[in-house]
Recover the amino acids of this structure.
């Protein structure tokens, strides 16, 4: 069990499929059960972190599957969930949070920088988070030298570089508290 948790899921699947064909059903069964997060009643659970109660274990597995992760580059939990959601929905690999930042909303874990210079993608992400402004706890978005707090876009002063003018990333600021109940 511990060995499986240390391997990437792709390796686990590969090993599981090999075992299904090369070993008996008795050996294949525990692998299938573990993959489905179903603790076996007749075997001790070696991981110290696993809850002993079966219902609690099942509930934890369900939560892990449904809710977006609440840790993302030092941001607050509800901000982190939006970071994970945007990665999942739009495939943006580079999203900045609080790590390495000491300024304003970023330093406080209340902001994300979604790195893209693609106008269509940036527009789509900006409109998506503004359409879910209340649910995500968003306060405002900056994109392509424009600011929007939900009441429409307004142009900003020239700050100098493309980064400072937000032509290479969508900046999203958030309220300091949120529900952190977003599903991924
Ligand atoms: Zn930013």
């Amino acid at each position: 069990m511990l060995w499986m948790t240390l391997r990437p899921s792709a390796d686990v699947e590969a090993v599981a499929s090999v075992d299904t064909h090369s070993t008996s059903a008795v050996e294949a069964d525990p692998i299938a059960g573990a993959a489905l997060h179903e603790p076996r009643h007749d075997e001790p659970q070696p991981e110290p972190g696993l809850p002993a109660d079966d219902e609690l274990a099942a509930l934890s597995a369900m939560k892990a599957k449904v809710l977006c992760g609440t840790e993302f580059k030092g941001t607050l939990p509800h901000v982190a969930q939006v970071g994970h959601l945007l990665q999942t929905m739009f495939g943006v690999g580079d999203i900045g949070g609080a790590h390495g930042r000491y300024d304003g909303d970023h330093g406080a874990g209340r902001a994300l920088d979604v790195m893209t210079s693609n106008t269509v993608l940036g527009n789509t992400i900006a409109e998506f988070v503004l359409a879910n402004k209340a649910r995500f706890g968003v306060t405002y978005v900056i994109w392509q030298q424009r600011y929007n707090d939900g009441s429409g876009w307004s142009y900003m002063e020239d700050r100098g570089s493309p980064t400072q003018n937000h032509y290479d990333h969508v900046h999203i600021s958030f309220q300091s508290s949120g529900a952190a109940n977003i599903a991924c």
The chain has two domains: 2-66, 77-174. The two ends are 26 Å apart (CA to CA).
